[in-house]
Design brief:
It is built from 4 helices and 6 strands, in the order αββββαββαα. The protein is an alpha+beta fold. The radius of gyration is 14 Å and the shape is globular. The termini are far apart. It holds the Pfam family YjbR.
């Protein structure tokens, strides 16, 4: 479901793996980023035509192979879900996750901020202390 040589994945990896004690593991055919628990996934899908902006009908999933999935800060969630660039991913959406398609010219600082917030939602306090000490 992904190409290990994908330059967009390489940039997401660089962002995610600079976070303290972050690691990568393949799960369900996709790269996932973890610090104990998952805080990021590269690639995802939405369920059929029911997804906002999918433009498709039916029940087959609509793939977003070049996307980053993350857990947003609760205070940011309403603004992000109102932004058409974001989507609610299949399976993880009910748990608060969102997705954003990644392109070469996207705002990489925004992606770093989204992964930072997602990391902070799951990482142990000692890792957050280490993160804050480097910023």
């Amino acid at each position: 479901m992904f190409d290990d040589a994908d330059p967009l994945l390489a940039r997401v990896r660089r962002i995610a793996l600079t976070l303290p004690e972050a690691s990568e593991a393949i799960a369900h055919g996709r790269p996932t980023f973890r610090c104990g628990k998952m805080f990021g996934i590269y690639g995802g899908s939405v369920k059929g035509g029911s997804a906002k902006g999918s433009g498709r009908s039916g029940t087959s999933p609509v793939r977003h192979d070049h996307a980053v999935l993350f857990v947003p800060e609760q205070s940011e969630r309403p603004a992000l879900t109102a932004d058409p660039r974001f989507f609610v991913p299949a399976y993880l959406g009910p748990y608060g996750w969102l997705g954003l398609d990644v392109t070469a010219d996207c705002d990489w600082d925004e992606i770093a901020e989204l992964l930072d917030a997602s990391y902070r939602a799951v990482a142990p306090q000692r890792c957050i202390v280490l993160l804050d000490a480097t910023r």
